[in-house]
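TEACHING EXERCISE
Course module: macromolecular assemblies
Task: Read the component lines below, then compare them to the predicted structure of the full complex.
Student: A.B.
Group: 4
Components provided:
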Amino acid sequence: MGLTGLEIYKHLPKTNCKECGSPTCLAFAMALASGKAELSACPYVTDEAKEALDSAAAPPIKKVTVGTGDHVVELGEETELFRHDKRFFHPTGVAVLISDTEDSAAKAEAFNDLEFDRVGMHYVTDMVAVKCDSGDAGKFKATVEAVAGKTEKAMVLMAEDPAVIEGALEVVADRKPLIHAATGDNYEKMTELAKNKGCPLVVKGSDLHNTAELVEKVVALGYKELVLDSGARETSQVLADLTQFRRLAVRKKFRPFGYPAIALTTKEDPREEVIQAGVYLSKYADVVVLKACEKQQLLPLLSWRQNLYTDPQKPIAVEAGLYEVGEAGEESPVYVTTNFSLTYFIVEGEVESSRIPSRILSVDTGGISVLTAYADNKFSAETIAEAIKKAGLEDKVKHRKLVLPGHVAVLKGTLEEESGWEVMVGPREASGITKYAKENFG
Amino acid sequence: MIIIGERINGMFKDIGGAIKDRDPAPVQEWARKQEYNGAHYLDINVGPSSAEPVEAMKWLVEVTQEVSDLPLCLDSTKYDAIEAGLKLCKQPAMINSVPAEMPKMERVFAMAAEHGAEVICLAMNEEGIPKDADIRVGLAAELVATADAFGITPDMLYIDPLVLPCNVAQDHGPEVMRTLREIKVISDPAPKTTVGLSNISQGTKNRELINRTFAVMAMANGLDSAIADACDDELMAAVASARIILDMDIYCDSYVDVFKQRNR
Amino acid sequence: MAVEIQKEKYRSKVGEVVLGATKDQGGTRSHTITVGGESALPFLHFEGEIPNRPVVALEVWDMVPDWNPCFEQYFGDVYNDPAAWAKKCVDEYGADLIQVRLKSADPDLNDTSPEDCAATVKKILEAVSVPVIVIGCGKAEKDNTLYTPIAEAAAGENLVMGVGELENYKAVTSACMANNHVVIAQSPIDINICKQLNILITEMSPAMSTRIIIDPTVAALGYGIEYSYSIMERARNGALQGDKMLGMPMYGNAGFESWRVKEANILTEEQPEWGEQEERGILWEATTAMAYLQSGIDILVMRHPEALKVIKGNIDDLMKDNSY
Ligand code: SF4
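Instructor-supplied answer key:
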């Protein structure tokens, strides 16, 4: 949303001199708000007012990038509070924490393995955070260098002593790491470092109010590649603060919070830590830093990220093809459905609960449901017959019978002709599959 | 959409008679009926020819509140009558109405601020009702800015762009629609909007059809409320449907009943 | 710099539903559990009241379940005895309440009679003092024969019973109405059906409006969870904005759904690149539950005691006041 009339009016001289062609400043403000006039028509607007109006018209949350090349992580540019209102855009960067007091080489090595293939998608743990716990600038620099040598992923450098950060930047500044953090005590020096090297900078306050203040100070120094950290570490308070960041930025265009946000876990137990990270990921963190680094710990978290950031307006598809449910053999029944993921998963669940090993042929309908695809000619005798061939179904089962969704029973005749298979008309709703299976194949 | 039930108005014969005889029965019957059918507010108007508007208003407010907990919309050009009514209201009421004219705005906004009342604001001034949407919106902005100075936030205001009968002022229709849309860019939060729905069909045949067609069109352009006949079932069904289409309520098969029963 | 905290102004709140009944109230529970009542989005204490914390149940079956072998070490000794199983869930694993699934009533399994099912429920009620949820075997025809005998046998206990579905809600609702139990209204990841079903149940008896628990069907992580998540967010927003027919507490079988999927079950040896199986399963279930807590769930039914533990800890953390 653009600026409202009242917001613009506040920046006008309120002299009603009419030079802009409008009878009053208020009328001119309204004309501006509805896009019927240009600000330049008023000769008396101050530069300050101009700047205020410009920045108010910018998108609610700035885009900030971390890393370089193929491993850039884009943060921010979010516009929503709820994914169903439109979508969330840039998936939360998940950063695994490596301390300069632990065996960093081994952890960095293992970090590279934290990538997963699942349902035809590739999930990546996209960031690595190196933290100075030693208090020793030399040690931190060496650790950062070692980690940087093992992985090309985007980095977060964590230390509050500018000298420590400065040392590390000597070796990795060209990788555009995210610096954590500028605080009330060090912000001048940290801002200067970040600005000189062109690296994004976390601004860490002591609470919400203080964070806003600090952001304004950093911005006043001329730097805007920022990420927010309210300083809170208790799960409940972090949830509240992240919510306020997002709400104030999106709903109120509150400039100091118009940046991506970072959240750090505190739990020692890895299970608790993954769940804590999950809360932050669900509610608005653009980067989450956690210590947990085992595959079984990251896979659930990255799966949730993938699910949360899917576009709700776009149908999601499972890979088309033949799926086995249970130990399917040559005599097992074959169900046909579309590759709309929700439809597929529901059918799969019902087939599974029939406890009769079966196959499901998922036809490529571009991820739309049975009736919509039928209406669109994407779920037709031709497409189904083609899918049978493509899946090599004839070699997998001895029988020549297919179960067709009841809603498209009309396809039976043409499909039998087209494919040479016998078509059995199944139930209209997936919930009838279990019963149907028992009656026909039990 | 917020429905302000229009029926308790001295202009109607039964209510006019009831006021004269101080007979609460017709007033209370209409209060109950409108509430039952889904009204969110009850408009209270002593009628144009009342000889004692202050006393009549006080009486109407009292007898209505005996049977209904709905908030009231005190409708009069006599601000003394509204003020007297406000003092008796058990919950925050709505003032109907004030134009963009200076002494009137001062009087009304001051009493609205004192009583925490919402205000229906008319997009007109001494010069009458403008046709052009830009002028209407300009007047609305003046009302919002003035209310702001009294500490009344824009979401407490209901701007009425003013509707004229479609058989005599057809050319106003598109301007009203545009006004409804542009009122939303005055401020954040934006002021709400309202119309006297039946004005659109004065003197026409097919009044109810015109009313409900206008209602859903205006809703699509951002209308938040209307002073209307809550007992017009077709109107209420059309409004409920429009709310579904505009994604303001979640669909279910019984959505019309759900809309009407919301306050019950 | 004072930041102006953004609080939503809601018109309404989620209805409260009481589960279980103490002796004074005609039952035998040591305490009741109240769910719902929120006038804010999940855990946003700064903008409203969250008077009741979400509760976590553990799942008990009335027969030996076909679960992943990793559950043996927790329940293997009580698989044959639902009452002992329930007791263990409460005493050892800290379940807030118990959900018994009368799986053995399935005509294709043991086809257990309604009377025997009722007896099982009675035994569980004797073994534990927490409120109890009872659900059928999942075959509507058979389940409809169970509700009344169980509702009568447990009259006064204020059970939660389910499930009622759009095509089949009358039997369970009547049983609950006649004996003052709470009904689970289940819809298939469809908010319109969810709302319609609540209306239909309320039409049977307006008094049921405070005795409905919404089950929007909670898909597992990786298997459509985002649909359920968004439906719950929409339902909760609708409830807070005054849509009473969505204003009931929400419930979900996070354990049952999570442990149906490959990611929770596949052995470490078969899929080493996904890490260790049991730990993966626990976190698959706990992550699923975590997401539903963030979208407004009030009653979670879990399966793995370790997943329950981590989720209860998460609820403790989230219930801490965060008002400004
Ligand atoms: S030219 Fe500027 S100061 Fe003059 S009336 Fe227009 S907006 Fe106001």
